[in-house]
Amino acid sequence: MTQRDVTRPTTVGAGVAGSWSPLADQQVVLEHVTPARAAFRRFLRHRLAIIGVVIVTTIILLAILAPLLTPWPPNKIDFTTGSRHAPNAAHILGTDVSARDIWSRVLYGGRTSTVVGFGAVALYLVIGTLLGLAAGFYGGVVDQALMRLTDTILAIPPLLLIIVFVSVVGPSIGSVIIVIGLLNWGQTARLVRGQLLVVREAEYITAARVIGVPDRVILFRHTLPNIFGPLTVVATFGVATAVLLESSLSFLGLGVRPPEASWGNLITEATSPVVLNHLPWQWMPAAAAITLMVLGVNFIGDGLRDALDPRTIRRG
Amino acid sequence: MGAYIVRRILISIPVLLGITIIGFIALRAAPGDPLLATANPDVLANLAQHPEILEAERHALGFDQPIFPNQYVAWLGHVLQGDLGYSITSHRPISSEIGSRILSTLFLMVTAMTLAVVIGIPIGVITAVRQYSRVDYGLNALAIFLASTPVFVLGLIAIYVFAVNLHWLPTSDQHTAGKSDFPDALYHLVLPASVLAIVNAAPLVRYTRASMLDVLSSEYVTTARSKGLGSRVVILRHALRNGLIPIITLVALLIPELVAGAVITEQIFNWNGMGQLAVHAADSRDPSLMMGIILIVGTAVLFANIVADIGYAVADPRVRYVRPR
């Protein structure tokens, strides 16, 4: 394998030199394929990842197109059908305790999960990246302080601290996004810092420094793009975790609260024995939706990880 | 070894302080007057005409001091003397609120973790040994599926199937009313512990598989095979020993997940433990109770990490040496 093997994902960096997958070896012939395109091709060959893309795309489309897919607004009370009615032609999944259409609430619950999943991850990617860059770039006391803070954040059981914070700011979609975002940047920060330390020693960075490129440009133009691969993987698994956290919080009554629909608070219904024992259509669709969404996102994450092969990342 | 343990414990102290500082600031900075949360609303309404009394009370409780470091240091001082304060909702000392529940939580979590290890590791080894076989694909798919199912969904399905429809096990609670013998407690433990175990076994299967695959492709395993040892001996005697070392750390990494899972499991099965207490504290906005829980859970998680690190150092002597920087 030569130094100019372009199929090797640059994101892997020097940290794992000599340990990339045999898959990359087979592709040495593809001299003119960019690393990104090679990774993309590997991703397309990952069967489960494609299944994941299909599942997640379908769920997002259903959530976006919700108003077109159901005549019932999610909070509309249908007095003629009544409460906890079995599935029928008008309400394909029946009605809930307040005579609202369950299919509609599942669709709109998908909006909540999608918004929270992507919103929270976007927030903590920004926080984690900035803190990681600061720690890796400035080093010394700043690095020590930030990394001890990161250790602390990572040592706390996430759900517990999130419960504390949500109880302080009050439950709502916004607070769930902010709280998940503020408490989960640890892994991102550690990853960015680690990769930055590796990249910082690279010759092209020394070269950039020598010709007088300012620090800001070195950080954001020359360093950050190298970290995109592993960050994508972390972010993808992060979406799955955020969706799970949101549904758990909402299930406990500490996240998104009724009447606003969320898959988690739809399942709270099943804590009533009547619903659990006799009315499975009240909670099983939402339960299936969460599991499918998280499964799909995890499949995509697995596919991305295999395609980019950053062996430094483990699912956190 | 002694020096390693001491160093490991010393590193954990600032982390524990950090956890409590973050929690303390968040809880004290919450909107609303902390004084209002400490007294009967009717009394306070009468006192509203006498702001000087409220002010004096605030001063006496230290609420007029800066949250950090003054109020925090005061809290920490009380904690070091064994005083965690009083719950504002039940008016009982927090140490007794927590003390009466900590054992049931430990009972649930230790059983679940043991089950998870007993189920997860052998399955992980089997999938690694039979890599790319039908067994491997099947068990792996199951593990991914279970890792993607929320604890509460798994719990509800388990209740629906095994308690409601099959009537094998109770739906919730820790005891049958009026009974308090050990077999009855075990009977109530089966379902929640299994749910919590399965959720944590799923990632263990995947970790163990990856770790064993690494070891199985190493040269000393090839050597063992080529000198004619049976595959059972190679796997159990040679590969397993090294393959399991990283799992010690991974088990420790799962503990925060285990805590989170226990919070939800306790809620579903009406298990009177720390998790239910935490949800109750959040629901009723009981800051001193919340702080007590953070302190105890934080200490427990860090302690578990230390034990895991020591276990790792025993299993792999290279860890004990400090890498020169």
Description:
The complex is a heterodimer of chains A (316) and B (325). Chain A is mostly helical. Chain A is built from 14 helices and no strands. With 325 residues, chain B is an all-alpha fold. Helix content of chain B is 75%, strand content 0%. Chain B has 14 helices and no strands. Chain B has helices spanning 2-28, 41-47, 51-61, 67-80, 94-129, 134-148, 151-165, 182-216, 219-226, 231-243, 245-253, 255-268, 274-283, 287-315. Chain B is globular. Chain B starts with a helix and ends in a 10-residue tail after the last helix. The mean pLDDT of chain B is 84.
Describe the largest sheet of chain A: none
Total strand segments of chain A: 0
Estimated helix fraction of chain A = 55-70%
- The CATH architecture of the largest domain in chain A can be given as Orthogonal Bundle
What radius of gyration of chain A results from the CA coordinates? 23 Å
Query: How many β-strand runs of chain B?
Result: 0
| Share in β-strands of chain A | under 5%
The CATH homologous superfamily of the largest domain in chain A is named MetI-like
Helices and strands, with pairings:
The complex is a heterodimer of chains A (316) and B (325).
Chain A: H1 22-26, H2 35-45, H3 47-64, H4 66-69, H5 102-138, H6 140-155, H7 158-169, H8 173-183, H9 186-200, H10 203-210, H11 215-251, H12 263-268, H13 273-278, H14 284-308
Chain B: H1 2-28, H2 41-47, H3 51-61, H4 67-80, H5 94-129, H6 134-148, H7 151-165, H8 182-216, H9 219-226, H10 231-243, H11 245-253, H12 255-268, H13 274-283, H14 287-315
Helix pairs in contact in B: 1-14, 5-6, 5-8, 5-12, 5-14, 6-8, 7-8, 7-12, 8-10, 8-11, 8-12, 9-10, 11-14, 12-13, 13-14
